[in-house]
Amino acid sequence: MSRKVLVTGGAGYIGSITCVQLLAAGWQPVVFDNFSNSQPRVLDHIAALTGVQVPLVQADVRDAAALATVFSQHDIHAVVHLAGLKAVGESVRQPLAYQDTNVTGTQRLAQAMAAAGVKRLVFSSSATVYGEPEGLPLVEGMRCAPQNPYGRTKWHCEQLLADVCAADADWAVTCLRYFNPVGAHPSGELGEDPRGVPNNLMPFMAQVAVGRQPLLRVFGNDYLTPDGTGVRDYLHVMDLADGHVAAVTALDAQKGFEVFNLGTGTGVSVLQLKASFEQACGQTLPTVFADRRPGDVAANWADPSRARNALGWQARRSLQDMCDDTWRWQSRYPQGFDTAHPDSS
Ligand code: NAD
Ligand code: WQD
Fold it and tell me: Above 70 in pLDDT, residue 201?
């Protein structure tokens, strides 16, 4: 009998692919999502890929009663908590909404878990908690000084969860600091489907390639980096999903609070990512150089060795895999999950 994992935000970009990888590893995901940034049909795509219609609870993580019901109706072994708001610019305009969903949501979830005696949790954190890097590559013990409200909510959650573990030795919590997740499921059936104009580089380029955006703006070409453009640690979402499987599996033998960077350990510039994506889609993307984007750091990349040593996890997929899989998804579903199914015509 496989064990159940509650996946909050399980209909989202990372959550949906994490469900597929959890199923492949023999876990039974239960999705908890309010569809504020996703759609129910995502679960049909998961079913088409895996043959499993994952159980769904449509509810809000701030809803204590809904959480209590889930834990009473399902024998949940562990929780992967991905539900949250994630747009940096929006968080500057709506700090209270970010505090409410991200921090209060995490607090309510932890309360419901404690009441149900389920004390194993994997939490979606972000490399954005570091802010301006103290050094490169980034190591988990380095200073955290997030530079925007979104990053501060993730940092507050990490500290709250560390305090929960310090107060009760029965808890095992792992915070995963993702660097820059990109890519899609290699089938092309699941991928990132941002609402409105994409904030992030890879989905923006993908939308330029299908004609949904007119051109790419490269934010800054005068950074102190090899080609002057920003450098990041792009990570395939399949590797990230595998990292969640490794982290959930490790909770059984874990006591207390852990934090791991999930990245490749390699920095890639905007122009390098663009060149790989152009290779994938067979087009040259119309591009202009624009001013730096406020709040951006010049470069960051992870030291992922702690996750390798403790979880046995490391990123395996290449930059070209990230671009090829993004393009397979975007070209198959140019309007994301609103696209009519390619095999239905
Ligand atoms: P996403 O928006 O695709 O997925 C989040 C899911 O949570 C969505 O399905 C949304 O409907 C759901 N959700 C939002 N608020 C909710 C609420 N109050 N109650 C229930 N469900 C709610 O985002 P993603 O890229 O898959 O990110 C997942 C997590 O990873 C987030 O916590 C995000 O902050 C974190 N993260 C993402 C990135 C990234 O670049 N994508 C990087 C670092 C960390
Ligand atoms: C990458 C590079 C841009 C768009 C963000 C969040 C972070 C995390 C991951 C959630 C930078 C440049 C971008 C464009 C560009 N999310 N760029 N033109 O900013 O590293 O991280 O997503 O936790 O918190 O801040 O990712 O993809 O937005 O930018 O030139 O149209 O691409 O300046 O150098 P970022 P990104």
Answer: yes
